[in-house]
Amino acid sequence: MAGTPVKSVSGGVITWTLADVALLDNPASGTEMQPSTTAKTVTAVFGGVNAALTVTNPTTPLTITQEDAKMAFDESNPTAVQVSAPGGTGSFAMIVNITQTDSNPGDMTKILPANVSMTLAAVSGGSRTQTATSISAAGVATFNFTGVLVNAYGVTVTLTNTYFEADPIETVLTVYDPSLGFVTGGGWFNWPGTTDKTNFGFVMQYGKNGSTLKGSLLLIRHTADGIIRIKSNSLTPGSLVLGTTTAPMGWASFAGKCTYSVSSEGISDGTPLFKVYVEDGNNPGTGFDKFWIQVDGHASLSMSPMASSSAVTIVGGNIAVPHTPARTTKGGWLLVLATPTWMASRRKRASDSRHENQRLEG
Hints:
Distance between the termini: 95 Å
Oligomer: single chain
Order of helices and strands: EEEEEEEEEEEEEEEEEEEEEEEEEHEEH
Largest sheet: 11 strands, antiparallel
């Protein structure tokens, strides 16, 4: 680097300050110095020295480090995305805001779209990563996704840049299809009694044989000390139960085992049982969707007992529970429980009806 310093004298100390100059490895070629853990050597060269004096050109080490930055998901981002058509896939945009936390701001235009990547990791397995579609000079990165399959996803964003560094961030997103009869949900709420933003996503359904429960759950609680996370690793057979009430309001409950982890403490437990209860106040939201969870042995992810009365209203997102209750002769609502036994008997009745029709037609 080279430049003309500003001199100041205080007592017997002369100070030269060099500011706002390019850090160049080779001033002649204009090659920039890159951040590195290896220190450079800076030499002050004095000219016009009195011949009667002996002056040694002093040196000092200079370490160039990356600027500190912070990433955050934009509040307008979706948390639950409905497919564009029955049996289709989801398309959506996600925005990440990148800001500087360093007291000496750097040049944000040096962060390119290729430097910011977003990964969608399906809880059931498989992932998809792509870089930002665009990024503004102010650090607003936009990601456009198309053709995303129905599932619950863990979303992670990372910054890989020569000049800036930032911690990865993560959230949860669900892509759902009401036509499939799945119980699905994705969104966020503040953990009861705190301001901890808690993201969740899940997809649940019985298989074609009516007995195999398939699906996944992911929940992340963002605390001041770090992230508390659970991810389902098995589901309890027959635990998915659906119902309706006079609201009408659809509700569902399911259970299984999960992996519980706390990022700040390096804790991981892969055996606790979780229980979830959700309410769908109609789709689209003519009522309030609610969420409740308990994780055995972990108070940090366990709400108060009595799921129906302790469930919290979600702030953003959507929960979809199939609920088209049949009206009784007295004008009330008939409660329907979608258990494996009920589903199997329903299929048997449908099969018997088809056989009877074929017999009559024959």
